Amino acid sequence: MTDTLTIPRPDDWHLHLRDGDMLKGVVAHTAEHFARAIIMPNLVPPVVTGADAAAYRDRILAALPASMTFEPLMTLYLTEATEADDVAQAHASGLVKAVKLYPAGATTNSQSGVSNFDNVQGVLERMAEIGLPLCVHGEVTDADIDIFDREAVFIDRVLDPLRKRVPGLRVVMEHVTTADAVAYVQTDTSGNLAATITTHHLIINRNHILAGGIRPHYYCLPVAKREKHRLALRAAACAGDERFFLGTDSAPHTDAAKLLPCGCAGIFTAPNTMSCLAHVFEEDGALARLEGFASRNGPAFYRLPVNSEEMRLTRQSEPVRYPELVETGAGNVTVFDPGFDLFWRVGP
Ligand code: DOR
Ligand code: ZN
User: Fold this and answer.
1) Helices then strands, each counted (H, E), the chain
2) How far is the CA of 265 from the centre of ligand 1 (A)?
3) Contact by Cβ (8 Å): 23, 62
4) Active site residues
5) Residue 255 Cα, ligand 1 centroid: separation in angstroms?
6) In a 10 Å sphere around its CB, with 0-12 CB exposed, 13-18 middle and 19+ buried, how is residue 306 labelled?
7) Which residues surround the ion ligand 2 when the cut-off is CB under 5 Å?
8) Angle, helices 273-283/227-238, rounded to nearest 10 degrees
9) Which ligand is nearest to the CA of 174?
10) Measured at the alpha carbon of residue 44, what is the angle toward residues 131 and 103, in degrees to the nearest 5?
11) Do 174 and 221 meet the contact criterion of CB atoms below 8 Å apart?
């Protein structure tokens, strides 16, 4: 049995770092393992302009322990007031690597998102021209659409028409959760479509959230679906298809904010993601493909170099222990519990 694996240092192509005390408490957990991450802009207020992104980037770097290197890849939050020139300038300067589309009301802090897509057509056309990717939270928000169907309906009603209206637009479907999304990406022939998959969606299905008691720490958006969808995600991640890559969507909320009658959506996977992934890929006989998923396919889509440093993973005979929670100045944040022992350890 293989018991060591050396891969280029991975990147996280979808990450929430928050701000203030929470940022200070969580950033090192990502920087410890990942060289770069696409930083989600759903702060309050959101990161909308190039100037907002530059200031947020500085706050992230200031919160990083001096001994660590980590490159935040900034994104802008698309609103109906976003200006194409500002986006293009922020991209040209190298600061911004993607623009994020949240349908209004879809998830945490998405009130400023897009309702009328006619109002963002100009920005999207400019993005297609300059090759700047659009990262998409792919869920419709209509109250009459069942929450478990919202991703599949989004593809038909919003994403596919949008991609037809803006030919050449490069799109990342974020945190896909359904066989429908996997199939949509697999059957695309444009070369302009990719998808991120989270660690937790490879591991949990909706039973983990709801059967035998409600488990708020497994609640995120898009919500985990039934088992056949989890298996489709596993197959896509482990197949070696370059269009699928890691975006953890590690989304810290304090326990106080999670454990409420109406708790927040988000799962904090930054500390143990690589151990979980090695377990998943090994279980599916695809350990050699973890490198593509975590370290190569993302840079290829984003047209960035693969990291030159390496990460070594070692399979040990005793379980690796991760803390159950991380204490931050904002409060305690529970770390994702995969529900099984982890044996793959990151490090020398
Ligand atoms: O579970 C989620 N949490 N999904 C999202 O789309 C947003 C994120 C957050 O910001 O907490
Ligand atoms: Zn997210």
Assistant:
1) 13, 13
2) 5
3) no
4) 249
5) 15
6) middle
7) 249
8) 90
9) 2
10) 50
11) no
Phi, psi torsion values for 196, nearest 5 degrees:
-100, 155
Q: Whose CA is nearest to atom 7 of ligand 1?
A: 108
Coil, helix or strand at residue 226: coil
Give per-residue pLDDT as tens, 96-140.
Answer: 999 999 988 777 777 788 988 899 999 999 999 999 999 999 999
> pLDDT tens digits for 300-330?
999 999 999 999 999 999 999 999 999 999 9
Helix (H/G/I), strand (E/B), else coil: 215: coil
**Token pair in block for residue 288:** 């050699």
At position 326, the amino acid (one-letter code) is V
Domains, in order of start, for the chain: 4-346 (3.20.20.140)
User: Which residues form the pocket of ligand 1, taking CB atoms under 6 Å from any ligand atom?
Assistant: 16, 42, 107-108, 137, 220-221, 251, 264-266
| Unique residue bearing structure tokens 């990083």 | 64
Give the rounded distance of the alpha carbon of 151 from its chain centre: 15
**What is the rounded CA–CA span in Å between residue 164 and residue 10?**
33
> Tokens 């040990």 belong to which residue?
316
Find the ligand nearest to 109 CA.
Answer: 1
**Distance in Å, CA 106 to ligand 1 centroid:** 9
| pTM for this model (two decimals) | 0.97
- Cα dihedral 175, 87, 28, 332 in deg (nearest 10): -60
Question: By alpha-carbon position, which residue is closest to atom 2 of ligand 1?
Answer: 266
